[in-house]
Specification:
alpha+beta, 224 residues, five-stranded antiparallel β-sheet
């Protein structure tokens, strides 16, 4: 993609991209990704469509203010920087974000959880449970520390060990794998046995079909 070199070209590019990108970003944060968000080309087309519609409405409503700036942007920007910044923020960020919130937000009015706060005073909170983290593995696995881990591979082989500060898991966009800092023996029933002699850790790729189980240590483990 060739970037525009003229001031007018830069302004036109921003006007055709920013409102749609802001709208799509807020929409995805509220409701998750649509089927059309899976490829970059469809996401760009969606952003351009929203931007074109908003730009047309802006020209219809605020044409007398915008046309002088679009016709000769450099002197107008130098003469009125505060007004230009306000218009850019309003038209490029605030209005698209507000439209996305009004269109896609699923809001419920609920009281705060503080016991001393009056229950009749309520605030809007979204009811949608969309999570921006790509997968459950990316959400949960990096948070597991000071726990046992057992992995059952599709081949039937079992691997177990102790996960703490020196362990590591990979997340999106990389494939799933885990480094377990101390490996322990595990039998066919899944019972964790003794620590392997001279273990310095084990690296394991987590393929599709594998079962990963984390277990909190019991009192006997902690006392030992």
């Amino acid at each position: 993609m060739t970037l525009p070199e003229s001031m007018f070209g830069v302004v036109a590019l921003v006007a055709l991209v920013i409102p749609g990108v802001v709208f799509a970003g807020v929409r995805s944060w509220l409701r998750g990704f649509k089927w059309s968000d899976q490829t970059a080309s469809t996401r760009i087309l969606d952003a351009l469509l929203v931007s074109v519609v908003l730009d047309a409405v802006y020209l219809w409503l605020f044409g007398k203010l915008l046309v002088p700036f679009l016709a000769n942007p450099r002197p107008e920007l130098a003469a009125h920087p505060a007004q230009a910044g306000f218009l850019a923020t309003l038209l490029g960020v605030i209005i698209p974000a507000a439209l996305a919130l009004g269109w896609h937000a699923d809001v419920a009015w609920r009281p705060l959880r503080w016991h001393w706060w009056p229950s009749w005073i309520r605030f809007p909170r979204r009811r949608t449970a969309h999570e921006s983290t790509p997968t459950a593995w990316d959400k949960a696995a990096p948070r597991k520390t000071d726990v046992w881990v057992k992995v059952l591979l599709p081949s039937g082989e079992r691997v177990a060990g102790w996960v703490s500060g020196e362990s590591f898991v990979s997340t999106y966009p990389h494939s799933r794998d885990i480094y377990i800092q101390e490996q322990f023996a595990v039998d066919e029933s899944g019972t964790i046995g003794e620590r392997l002699e001279n273990t310095a850790g084990v690296w394991l790729s987590i393929p599709d079909g594998a079962i990963v189980e984390w277990l909190y240590p019991n009192s006997e483990d902690e006392s030992a």
